[in-house]
Amino acid sequence: xxxxxxxxxxxxxxxxxxxxxxxxxxxxxxxxxxxxxxxxxxxxxxxxxxxxxxxxxxxxxxxxxxxxxxxxxxxxxxxxxxxxxxxxxxxxxxxxxxxxxxxxxxxxxxxxxxxxxxxxxxxxxxxxxxxxxxxxxxxxxxxxxxxxxxxxxxxxxxxxxxxxxxxxxxxxxxxxxxxxxxxxxxxxxxxxxxxxxxxxxxxxxxxxxxxxxxxxxxxxxxxxxxxxxxxxxxxxxxxxxxxxxxxxxxxxxxxxxxxxxxxxxxxxxxx
Length: 271
Ligand SMILES: CC(C)(COP(=O)(O)OP(=O)(O)OC[C@H]1O[C@@H](n2cnc3c(N)ncnc32)[C@H](O)[C@@H]1OP(=O)(O)O)[C@@H](O)C(=O)NCCC(=O)NCCS
What we know:
Layout: H1 12-39, H2 52-59, E1 66-70, H3 76-82, H4 87-90, H5 96-115, E2 137-144, E3 147-154, E4 160-167, H6 173-179, H7 184-189, H8 199-218, E5 227-231, E6 236-241, E7 251-256, E8 260-267
Antiparallel strand pairs: 1-3, 2-3, 4-8, 5-6, 6-7, 7-8
């Protein structure tokens, strides 16, 4: 799908959002890419090739969060040789596509950690597939066709962090029926009209980001329909629990480009 301005524009803030995600992000992508390259070292060098999705993801996150992203995954040989320590066991016997996806996400994670001054080491797979970050850090990994990324922050900056990226295309109707909660589409319908955004996919991605932000600390398994997401035209979203188990306070952000939906959910440390 393509996200472009059109003559039905009904809101200045809406215009600002879409301009931000489709055009301004492109304008600064070179600067951000140069920044990424200049800070890179070791295995993370391969992550210097920034995609516009990278700028969009950075823009969705607060200062102090390190982001590495690429639009090209490691090839199989590089992927296998980049895995450190127990990481290799996590994808032993996996299909080549999975090995490449996993290793590219780990390389992004190491790059982001290196940006925060952490010596590159394994990012093992924890319970229920959640990455195990070094003590004092929170982070999140995402991958979809054409985009692989990781975001990491010190726990002094964020106490929870989840990011998600999806191909910007409509969900299959049967999937949408499973992940969209009652009332969510109606609230989306209240957003300014005339933009070609795959709203169900944005809602779904926001829920995935919420899951990744909350599960590692809470160990509460929430299905998509257990969470209600309220998208706002300024690119923020609110998430509330539809079950008795409350969600922690989260800040939500959503962005779209012509090819990607990118969302982030995070919390500031208490105090
Ligand atoms: C785990 C899940 C969130 C992954 O999302 P996805 O869009 O399918 O895939 P993405 O590529 O964006 O993310 C995959 C990465 O998420 C991370 N991840 C997986 N399980 C995780 C967990 N339990 N907690 C935190 N992060 C997790 C991993 O880093 C994984 O990549 P890796 O296996 O290569 O390390 C999703 O498959 C899932 O099971 N969701 C549970 C239900 C849900 O979404 N509920 C929403 C309401 S809160």
